[in-house]
Structure formats: C-alpha cells, structure tokens
Design goal:
- The protein is 25% helix and 24% strand.
- The protein is an alpha/beta fold and 166 residues long.
- A hairpin with a 4-residue loop joins strand 3 and strand 4.
- The chain is globular and about 55 Å long.
- The protein starts with a strand and ends with a helix.
C-alpha cells in the first residue's frame, strides 16, 4: 500500500498550485507520486461529439481511451453512490505516495493550506487528522508544524520526512 496524505483547505487557497509545485520535487527525490482530486460538482472530462462521449451516451458502463502517451478509464456510476476514497486508492497503479486533494473530512493525515486573506476559519483546531499548517504568514499552530506556503522545497522535505521516510 502506498503512503497516503491529503491537502485540506477552502477553495481558492492554492492547494492545486502547491501540489503542482510539489510533484516534480517529490519525483526528483525518487518518489512515484499519484494524485486523487475530488471534484465537488458534476464534472466531465469528455466532450459532446467525441467518440468516447457517444459511447457513454449510448450506455456503456465503462469507456477506456488509449493512445501512445496516456490512457484514461471513464466509469459511469449510473445512480450508484460515489466510491469511497479507500476504494479509489485501491484502483490506482502501484506508487509510493498518493496525494489527495479534496476529501477534506476524510480520516487521513492532512496538511492544511490556509490564507489569512481568504477570511475562512482554520480547520486544524477541529480536524485531528491535520498534521501541519502551510500558510502565507507565520502563525502559532498550537504545537503543529507551520510550513511557509511560498516555500515548496521546505514543504516537500516535510512530506518526505513525515510520509515517505517515516
């Protein structure tokens, strides 16, 4: 099983941007990284008129598109409940580390991303799964590590020390 941890925080605090900066740093350290991103709305990666879209519209349960550079599997839930985070992790190919974006209420260790300017409350006082806070201003996190949000090298090292090489 890979190591799993998440980033929690409200919309607009920079979770995706930080993850985008961390992935190449972690890969450079020899870590094979996968990401699970939770979408809070009815998203679709397919487009009307494409063959795969037409197959799904015709009722296919799954459509796998493959090419020489990537493949994607689209699975239609057709009224079934959304699979749990644990079920989604099991679907991933072998890797060393799974970064989860979203699923902020999940029972996995998380780094909270917080920006004072966002005007939202912090999650860590209530969420006991938060192991550190990455913030754009230095704050007292009641004993949790504070990570400078604008220093992805330091955050990557924290992730390596805490989740990969623990």
């Amino acid at each position: 099983m890979p190591k799993v941890f998440g980033f929690a925080g409200y919309s607009g605090v920079g979770k995706t941007t930080l993850i985008e900066q961390l992935i190449p740093r972690l890969i450079h350290s020899g870590v094979r990284v996968s990401v699970i991103k939770h979408a809070h709305h009815d998203f679709d990666i397919d487009r009307p008129g494409k063959d795969s879209y037409r197959h799904r519209e015709a009722g296919a349960h799954e459509v796998l598109i493959t090419a020489n550079r990537r493949w994607v599997l689209m699975h239609e839930l057709n009224g079934e409940p959304e699979p749990s985070l644990e079920a989604q992790i099991q679907r991933l190919s072998p890797c060393d580390l799974v970064i989860v974006e979203g699923f902020k209420r999940s029972d996995i260790p998380k780094i909270e991303i917080w920006r004072e300017a966002n005007g939202k409350p912090m999650l860590y006082p209530e969420d006991k799964n938060i192991v550190a806070v990455a913030c754009d201003v230095e704050i007292d996190c009641d004993g949790l590590p504070w990570l400078p949000l604008n220093n992805p090298d330091r955050i990557a090292q924290f992730i390596l020390n805490t989740f990969v090489h623990d």
